[in-house]
Amino acid sequence: MSQLTTSEIAGSPSATLAALINGFMASQVVHVAAKLGVADLLADGAKTAETLAGQADAHAPSLHRLLRALASLGLLEEVEPARFALTALGAQLRTAVPGSLRNRALLFGGDRSWRCWGELLHSVRTGETQMQHLYGMGSFEYLTEHPGQAEIFNEAMAEGTRQVTRAVVTAYDFSRFRMLVDVGGGNGTLIAAILAATPKLRGIVFDLPSGNAGAPRQLEAAGVAERCDVIEGDFFRSVPPSADAYVLKAIIHDWDDERSIAIFKNCRRAISADGKLLLVERVMPVKVEASQSHRQMAMVDIHMLVLAGGRERTVAEYQALFAAAGFELTRFLPLPEVAGISLIEAAPV
Ligand SMILES: C[S@@+](CC[C@H](N)C(=O)[O-])C[C@H]1O[C@@H](n2cnc3c(N)ncnc32)[C@H](O)[C@@H]1O
């Protein structure tokens, strides 16, 4: 075996930079594995590409190369020559298992996201989102027009939300409220967990029809359907009135300041005098460092730049939005189990 050059030594600046430059390759390999259903097909044991190719509708020799790439990333293990088994990491690409991220892989490596990121330079030069530049419409208009994509998006959001529900219900006492509206609540994953943990609370999942279509099924599965209504609507017009708690998870980061204030103002009009507005969002640190959680935050911020037109914000930036809409920040609770994500409580003033 030849000697490693300095630039190949793991951890050297060149090796680290090369890995970052090549990062898109791993992303697309994982996406294609999700698309072909590789993890589901390997759920019952190790297989060769020859065996999988028919079920996965793939070209066997090329599939073998994909499986090898997945093994190099730690999602598969080559248990004997040319036979690949799922690892614990790869098992998270299975459909509908606890902790599954299959829809996330489908969404982020999928055509729309891929094209938008491919034009990042244009967004950085102009500030324009790629949804406007390439598709001539906003992200949620696109999802309304593409129900199949909306289903993947909603499931991907729910996969992310499942990772924070326990931290949210542990960190915050919802039992003091009588009615909670989940504004832009998607398929109801968050509110289902909150209602399950708070037996006397009632709720509403409020979203566009493309967003909350899967909510009845989700609420039913969680055993909370009789305490939760599913209401379709547009939060730029109004939100359901008179509740004493409004939760918005991953909503404000989708929008620029003007649109965010418009959403908050509609919540302000609707909320009861003693109510609370609760945000569950990534909160941008004042100073960014080279850490895993800051990287995740900064990359989602860029995703917002190219797709939705929103941004990740600091606490001070959230305070300014609250002030513009008649709220004040009353509590800031970083969720310890999910680095970077916080619960922010505000009250009407
Ligand atoms: C990033 S997702 C977050 C979903 C959910 N809160 C979660 O964290 O899993 C944003 C949600 O906002 C909804 N949304 C977007 N525009 C909306 C509008 N004008 N009125 C109501 N909901 C809207 C979308 O349909 C989607 O469900």
What's the arrangement of secondary structure elements?
Elements: H1 13-21, H2 23-36, H3 38-41, E1 47-48, H4 49-56, H5 60-72, E2 76-80, E3 83-86, H6 88-91, H7 102-108, H8 111-118, H9 120-126, H10 130-135, H11 139-145, H12 147-162, H13 165-171, E4 179-183, H14 189-197, E5 202-207, H15 209-212, H16 215-221, E6 228-232, E7 245-249, H17 257-270, E8 276-282, H18 292-308, H19 315-325, E9 327-334, E10 341-348
Parallel strand pairs: 4-5, 4-7, 5-6, 7-8
Antiparallel strand pairs: 1-3, 2-3, 8-10, 9-10
Helix pairs in contact: 2-5, 2-7, 4-5, 7-12, 11-12, 13-14, 17-19
The chain binds S-adenosylmethionine.
Helices, by number, come to 19
Strand content: 15-25%
What is the number of strand segments? 10
Q: Which blocks of ≥5 consecutive residues have pLDDT under 50?
A: none
Rounded Rg: 22 Å
Average pLDDT metric: 96
Measured as a percent range, the helix fraction is 40-55%
Biggest beta sheet attributes: 7 strands, mixed
What molecules are bound to this protein? Answer: S-adenosylmethionine
Secondary-structure-based class equals: alpha/beta
Shape designation: globular
**What order do the helices and strands follow?**
HHHEHHEEHHHHHHHHEHEHHEEHEHHEE
The termini sit apart by 70 Å
- Trace the largest sheet across and list its strands: 6-5-4-7-8-10-9
